[in-house]
């Protein structure tokens, strides 16, 4: 392919080019057509079965670890409402915005129960920079300072 030709520049006038029809050009076209019609996938009959190192695993390591963790923690049980409120208020003292997953991790409460409580004391942000997060309603924002004074 040492004799490949390339051109660079800007087009000023339109030009129509036609190749010189000779034996070399016809061989090139024939080779191009054969390449296009060639099937990309070929099936082969194997003489013996190929054994691979990979064998199916019934249960992967990360699934086993997850199951152990789930059993040790047990099922989420609803705690007393005031206990959950205290946990939520102490969490909101550290940060203003939390998504529901973070609050479930902090309180260890079921999502439906947590949302039920959050609807009373918090507002859910649908838009803006804090999308999909919860924050306390203005009347609850200074919970600890209002109780202490």
From TrEMBL:
Recorded GO CC terms: transcription factor TFIIF complex
Keyword Lipid biosynthesis: no
GO BP annotations listed: transcription elongation by RNA polymerase II; transcription initiation at RNA polymerase II promoter
GO MF annotations, alphabetized: DNA binding
Major site of localization recorded for this protein: nucleus
Location(s), subcellular: Nucleus
Matches recorded under InterPro entries: TFIIF_beta, TFIIF_beta_HTH, WH-like_DNA-bd_sf, WH_DNA-bd_sf
Keywords, comma-separated and alphabetical: DNA-binding, Nucleus, Transcription, Transcription regulation
Nucleus listed as a keyword: yes
Annotated TFIIF beta subunit HTH domain residues: 77-141
Family note: Belongs to the TFIIF beta subunit family.
Annotated protein name in UniProt: General transcription factor IIF subunit 2
């Amino acid at each position: 392919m040492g004799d490949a030709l390339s051109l660079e520049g800007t087009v000023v006038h339109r030009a129509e080019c036609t190749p010189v029809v000779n034996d070399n050009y016809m061989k090139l076209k024939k080779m191009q057509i054969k390449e296009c019609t060639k099937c990309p996938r070929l099936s082969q009959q194997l003489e013996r079965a190929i054994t691979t190192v990979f064998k199916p695993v019934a249960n992967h390591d990360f699934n086993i670890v997850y199951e152990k963790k789930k059993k040790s923690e047990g099922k989420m049980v609803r705690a007393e409402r005031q206990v959950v409120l205290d946990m939520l208020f102490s969490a909101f003292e550290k940060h203003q915005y939390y998504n529901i997953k973070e609050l479930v991790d902090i309180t260890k409460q079921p999502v439906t129960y947590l949302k039920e409580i959050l609807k009373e004391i918090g507002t859910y942000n649908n838009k803006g920079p804090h999308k999909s997060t919860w924050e306390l309603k203005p009347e609850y924002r200074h919970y600890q300072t209002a109780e202490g004074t």
